[in-house]
Amino acid sequence: MQKPYNPNIAGRDFKYYIFDWDDNILHMPTYIHLERRLGNGEWVPHLVSTALFSVIRNDTQNYRPPEDNWEKAFAEFRDFATDGESKFLKDAREAIDRLKRGDDKTAPSFNTFRRTLKEGRIFAIVTARGHKPETLRKGVRLFMDEVLRPEERKEMIYNLRGYIVCYDENGGKKNNAMSDEEVVDNFLDLNRYHAVTSPDFIALVKSAAVPEIESSETRKQFAIHDFLDHIFRIIDRIGGTKPVSVGFSDDDPVNVHAVATFIRNELAAKFPAVKFVVYDTSDPDIENGHKITVAGQMDLGLNVKHDD
């Protein structure tokens, strides 16, 4: 019997997503290790959440990394194992468990990411963390396993099989031959996982022979450009002719401004057919974030205030 698939995929638009992870998809219990200056001038150890760091990151008079070493400050944002599991996965699991217990509220893009998975949309994770791509991929898989309800997982696979049948060469035969697990793995392989302070990402930048980029903001710009090149290679391969929409969400206003400027000044000219929207999710009082239409009039389905 032929495995079920969504026959309506061919009529869908080409809509893609780029997500920051911390305080955007999940409120992670990961801390930045800083030193804080007291009133008497003494410096003392001080743990800072990612949300607070986005506010005080430029306050060099009162905050500094231990021994003036940013690698020590961001030690928890690198790949290492605790009790046999990576710190990233352990923190992601804890963040999800807090939501299940009702001890935390969802991050601004939590439900959009959930819907992205259910619909089988291709996406990128672009974060200032320093993990290997495989670590972020495992985090996405954990989100799938722990957040999606059985009926949502079924819907996701139904849609993913529809994409295979519609757009893959010999899609019908391939779909019939693939298990559900293989369908999910195929989907995860199609996405991009960029931790822009990781050795893997820095090697990717060097291999592209672009000028040295030092800041997290400019590295995120490179990651976004890489994702656009990636999706257009896919579109060219399948012969797609539909309009393309791309949405980016981040909780750091500095990153939001840098990305919006990058889109206006460079990407909009290189990809004139693409509709770009940036979501600033830094303000917890604005449900789902603040929408900034950068190019075109795309709507990601969020009920948000926006600038046109």
Can you describe what's shown?
The longest helix is centred in the last third of the chain and has 23 residues, at 216-238. Helix 3 packs parallel to helix 5. The chain has a domain at 9-25 and 106-303. With 308 residues, the chain is α/β, with parallel strands linked by helices. It has helices spanning 50-56, 70-73, 87-101, 110-119, 133-147, 150-167, 171-177, 180-190, 199-207, 216-238, 253-270; strands at residues 14-19, 31-37, 43-49, 63-64, 81-82, 85-86, 123-127, 192-195, 244-250, 274-280, 290-295, 306-307. The strands form three sheets. A seven-stranded mixed β-sheet has the order 8-7-1-9-10-11-12. A three-stranded antiparallel β-sheet has the order 3-2-4. Helix content is 44%, strand content 19%. The radius of gyration is 20 Å and the shape is globular. It is built from eleven helices and twelve strands.
Distance between the termini: 50 Å
* Percentage of residues assigned to helices: 40-55%
| Count of alpha/pi helices | 11
Shape: globular
Please tell me the overall pLDDT: 88
Secondary-structure-based class equals alpha/beta
Order of helices and strands: EEEHEHEEHHEHHHHEHHEHEEE
**Radius of gyration from the alpha-carbon trace, in angstroms:** 20 Å
Largest sheet: 7 strands, mixed
The strand line-up of the biggest sheet is 8-7-1-9-10-11-12
**Which band does the percent of strand residues land in?**
15-25%
How many strands in all? 12
Stretches with pLDDT under 50, minimum 5 residues: 297-308
